[in-house]
Specification:
mainly alpha; two-stranded antiparallel sheet; 10 helices; 3% strand; globular
Amino acid sequence: MLDNEVELFWKKRWNLAKCLFLWNRFHSLALNISTTAVYLHSRPSYNSPIYMSAMSVSGSSTQACDLLKTLSGASFIHWQDIGGPSGVLLTHIILELRLYAMYGSTRKMLFLFTIMTAIEAAVVFSLPLLHPLLERTNQPSPGVYICTTRARSNGSRVGGYWYAAVLIVETILLGFALAKAWQYRSSSEIQSPLMKQLTRDSLGYFLMLFWIYLANLVIWARDFTIVAEFGIPFGFALPSILANRLLIRIRATYFRSFPEPDVETYLPPLRFTTSNVPSSVVSTHSIYDGEPAAFNERLGI
């Protein structure tokens, strides 16, 4: 897979797909490494330098996690609240662009996905504004020391609503992919490697992530605080991994069908003719198995 990544992205010209791929790859890596560095110690809350800074001011282990918001850990808390949702939103943008190309890059689909992205962004980035309904604790259960977030006793299950919104978007995107596959089930287009690849990967992507998002939804809706932090990394890391694998597989399938010429050495032959050539043989690239309906060369996705 690393060889494909180098050949299909690092060595290719810059376009939107390459930017999204690299951003998605390193954003998720930075988010998970930073979270691990702070929390995953033998006694996470007590060994964390950020936590110790909060302890020195509060003098109480039960208040220290809340104070992370206002002391030296404030930037880290905001990084968690913004970094995680932005990673999920980025994977959905990748999937929406894939569907945009799959539906012929029409303005109607572009408008629809733009509206969907704007609404989803408004929902997922509202999480930092919901802190009055949440509280942080370093001991969700006796003997378990880890800074985690839970709903206040008089607060609503806002975390469950967040995962419900993500599940709704995932279901809509899957529906678009399956609807397109069903539309061309009896035509030659669905027989193309790229269309079959996209349909299969879209279904596999949804099925793999559906249970993770559903588990997180149940955890937050029922306020199972002791396990809340265990499902979050899976819900943020796996979507970015699978979205990048989807990009690699789609580009690999496409470029195997249409290898790019070497721009430094390739010179197209000159042909002069006055005869009427049937349009069906002029450009095999534009009619081969309906591939252009599933790949946007300008976006590279």
